[in-house]
Amino acid sequence: MSRRLHRLRLLAPVLVVLTAVTVASGCGSDSSPGSTSPSRSAGSGSAGSTSFPVTVSASNGPVTLTAAPRAIVSLSPTATEMLFAIDAGTQVKAVDDQSNYPATAPRTKLSGFSPNVEAVAGYAPDLVVASDDIGGLTSGLGKLGIPVVLLPAATSLEQATKQIITLGTLTGHRAKAEEVAADTTRRVDAAVASVADKLAGAKVYHELDQTFYSATSRTFIGSIYKRFGFTNIADVAPTAAGDYPQLSAEAVVRAQPDIVVLADSKCCGQNAATLAARPAFATLPAVVSKRVIVVDDDIASRWGPRVADFAEQVAQPLRGR
What is the CATH number for 284? Predict the structure, then answer.
């Protein structure tokens, strides 16, 4: 079970014991967590050129910085990817133990799942970025005068790009953040357009591990499949099963998915051959039509700029089929 829980932790900032995983999500309005406050939005430019103070709206409320941060601690692998993508990497002093991209990120033993306030404060940060307020992280650091911005798991591309711009605002890289957000959206839309007409309505099964945990359309990765126009077979699971329900082999075979996306290649060694070797799985339309797609586990579990890579990984083998 430890391997399964590890995989689910990569996907959601909140893990509910046993089989249910729930993800905290931001709202879709302009005042949603991860958006810039309209009253005091930041200008464009690199760190040092933006007009401070700035205030943004996060899931923990308004966050104000009087100057560009120079010692950021990231406790979210997705936030780490966003920070480096917007050229704020030089301002990042430490990242959590799951932040494995980019390779140059200053990875530490800090945990985003069981954060230790004293350990985080030991890096003397002037900004901490996290996906969830676990163990009193926000209040604990607040007592020490350390600002925290909480950016929970997005449930749509629009929410994800808002978070990119929020981090750009806070770090003084607003212009670069807007560029990254726009490019990410453009690439995802291009990938969708390349196959959408051919496979609209196709049934997709997204596999988190070989015990048949999947992701519904309510999740971020599920929203990308919805953007493609696919029908997600996990959506038939009871709501009580959560956004990441555990299906069964029989349920997957019965659903006859046209596309299977394996997001358990790195963790669990799954590929088209191991899938087809399962009892009755060789008969799946996805296997017969060679629409079994192996994706990078990490990319498929985060909502940062590399979602464009994910969309392209999904689209590439489907073009012309």
Answer: 3.40.50.1980
